[in-house]
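[09:14] KT: can someone run the structure on this one? pasting the chain below
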Amino acid sequence: MEQLIMKRNASVFEHGRRFSRHEDIEGYMISVFGEKFAEYRRRWTATMQRETLPEATPPAPYYLSVGLTNVCNLSCFFCYRHSSSMAVNRASLPIDLVRSLMAEAGEMGIDSLDIGGGGEVLTYPDLAHALELVANAGFKDVFLPTNGLLLKGDILGRVVESVTRINVSIDAASPETYRITRGGDYDSLLRNIDAFLDMRERRNLRKPILRVSFIVMRENRHEVDAFLEKWLNIADIVDFQDLVTYPDHDALQTENLPIAFSHCADPFRTLKITSLKVISPCCSGYSKYFEIGTYPEITLRQAWNSDIIANLRRDLWNAEYPLVCRNCRNRGFEKG
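[09:31] RB: done, C-alpha cells below
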C-alpha cells in the first residue's frame, strides 16, 4: 500500500488496514451503543482465535447475514457476482419471509444483522417495510453495506432510524477512477454521503457509524493516499482491503494447497441466508458446499443446531480442516 497510509497508525486485519478518526473505535462504538453491545463484542472477539472459543456452542449465532436481494445497480468488474459458478437468477426474499426471519432472530436473541449479502440492498423493492421489521427485532448491531448511489430521498431517513452502521464501498478518490472501478456517478455518491452526515448531525446522533472502504487494485492504487486524506476526518472508519480474486467455486483444488490454515470463526458465530432462501454457516462463495437447507423448510434454530454445522465445528476444533475450507483460504489476493 502507498507510503502515506503505511506511515499512519492503523489496526491491521487479515488482508487489510483500518483507520479511524476516533482513537479507539471499539471504545467509541461502546460509548454510542452501550453495555449490551460491549458484551456482544466481547463474545464476538472470543471466536476469532481457536484458543479462546467458548467451551459450548452458543444457543444462537452472534451474526446473521440476510441477502434481501441479489440485484445490483452496478457491475463492478472485480465483484464475486461475476464468478460463473455464482451467476444466479435475479431474486429477492419475499417480505413475508423477511418478517418471519426477523421474528425468529429476535426470539433467538441473535446479536447482529447484515442485510447485504449478494446484491445492493437499496434496490430491494419493499425496503422501507423490511427496515421497520429490522428495527423492531432487537438487534444490537445492524450493518447496511451499500454502494451509496441510492442512499437518498425518503429511504435515507428510514436507514438512519433502523441501522447502526452504514458501510459504503467506494474504491476511488476521483470521478475518473470511480467510473473505471465501479461505473457510477462519483459526485452523486458524495452528495448522498453529505446528505446522510447532515441528517445525522441535524438529529444530534452519533449513529449510524459510517465506514468507507477502498479495495486496492492496479486501477486505483495511485489514489490510496488521496482517499485516506479525504475520508479520515469525515468517516468513522476508513478501511483498505486487498483485492480478492474469485476462482471457479465448482472446481475444488486438491493439490498445491497450503498446509497451514488460519482459524475460521464463521461456523461458531454466523448463519447466512441468501435471496434464494438457502441457509449456510459461512459467508464465502464456498458456502454452497455447506448448504443446510432452505428457509422456511428449515428454521434458523434448526440450521444452527444441524449436523452439518456441528460436524464443521468439530473439524475446525480438531484442526482437521476440510478441503473446501482449505480452498477458501487459498484464494488469491492482489497485494496493495
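[09:33] KT: thanks! Residues 8 and 116 are 31 Å apart (CA to CA).
[09:34] RB: yep, looked fine to me
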